[in-house]
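Why does this matter for the project? Reviewers at the last site visit asked to see concrete outputs rather than summary tables. In response, this paragraph embeds two records directly. Each consists of the residue sequence and, immediately after it, the corresponding structure tokens. Nothing has been edited or filtered.
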Amino acid sequence: MRRIGLLSDTHGYLDDRIIVYLNECDEIWHAGDIGNIEIAQKLAALRPLRAVSGNIDGTDLRQEYPLQLRFICEEVDVLMVHIGGYPGHYSSEAQKEINLLAPKIFISGHSHILKVIFDKKNQLLHINPGAAGIQGFHQVRTLIRFTIDKAVIKDLEVIELGQKGIISM
């Protein structure tokens, strides 16, 4: 059984509240737009980190983290990209990869809009954790925690970190 902390779009910002929530996880997954290598290093020092680079990430992050990541967690096939869309509105590249790889979880970021949707057509759970950083048009910073127990995805919780303009220490 693995407890996952999932976030995206930190854009170089990581506060103590995020760390507190991620401390209860076995792994951290980041769906891109990390912002800088220091944020990735802080996350990786906390827990094992699986991440993709996003459109604002520089060369240092792109060398360390791919644009697309596919892996198995417990018995669940996971596909993570930064820009991927959502059910019925996937990017053409994401839809191609979903058709080819048939993941059980498809994770994307980029939009700053939190979405958790079961995609009946592709038989997968789509998750966009919203944005944990303070840059962008979102109003509330969010991240998601969930558990993968063998082939079961359960105990998903949305965590609101507060208004993006309010910085907590």
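We now turn to the second protein, recorded in exactly the same manner.
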Amino acid sequence: MLDSRPTRNDLIDWETTDDGDVQVIIARQDNWKIRMLSKVFYIPKQRKITLDELGSEVWQMCNGSTTVAQMIEGLSNKYQLNRKEAEVSLLTYLKTLGEKRFIGFALEPSERGSGRGGASGKKWV
């Protein structure tokens, strides 16, 4: 896990605000249930989630080239956390982003063992 490289989902739009925070833009799904509900309730076409300073910094580091171990080291140095505090907090946050499918974890070809990777030779987990 520590050698994996978190990568943002290319299908999710995001922008940086004037304050330097990141806003993740989630488009509304378009299926019959949502269309039916939108006739009764107001459902916006998109939703913006604003990340705080630390969340924005982690989001920026999820570029596919920074490993989780490098992220932990950088955060522990910048915010004067011991390694275990930074590791637990970061892994919990990355798990949340992964469950929401905002990010994926790319593995290098030598790390993936058997299985098929994408066109880049990396495998998503």
